[in-house]
Amino acid sequence: MSVQNTIPNKIELTFLGSGTSAGIPMIGCQCAVCTSADPRDKRTRASVVVAYNETKVLIDATPELRLQCVANGIDWIDSVVITHAHADHIMGIDDLRRFNSIRNGPLDVWMDEPTAKAVRTAFGYCFQTEKEHGVYRPELIERRIDGLFQIGGVTWTPIPLFHGKTRILGFRIGNLAYCTDASGIPEESWPLLENLDTLVLDALQEKKHPTHFTIAEALSVVERVRPRRTLFTHMSHGVSHAVVSAQLPAGVELAVDNLMVQVGD
Question: Which of 169, 182, 204, 263 is the most exposed place for a label (fewest CB within 10 A)?
Fold first, then answer.
């Protein structure tokens, strides 16, 4: 069944986390960024909440999900979307049970088939249909991403991305695109990035990496796509906020944890 392309009038985007899989500061690291007094250099694992039309959607469930939601006053989620099944993007799934309690009902979790297979392996108990008296666990409903889909009456467009050799998903919602954990963009995905107001894009560090864009590579994407505004995310301890921000062109900035932006504002 086809899905009509419906876009929201307004989107509010909250960065729960903006860091790479190790988090910043890293365990046992005494580098200038890990020991920085600048709060902008403190980065939990990458995740966002997309809000529109009284609907709130969580993209990815990081290991710090509980702390991230408390820090940002996120006390309601209508649905969850997962980009891929790496640990830094799914290991907070058990914390979703609190949202089940608040809403007194299950949550939809949208995933493609490879992601769903891994999530079911790690969190199969969350998708059980039979309730157990006295057992406190997430109640999740698996929803499949195999093309356009809708949440809260708004169309989500999957954007295939390369994360090293692995195919993962970014997403376009109206004039916002969220593309974390990317090292390449397939040809069929470039048209999905046209005429954007806001692009959120992986920019790990300056040094070359096999599964993530460098800052220079991310800037090349920006030059081709030309969104009105770009926010880099999933940054490592190789990125000093103050130093790198001063080098970025107009319209491009580094995301920080707990940042909220209005798309189109």
Answer: 263
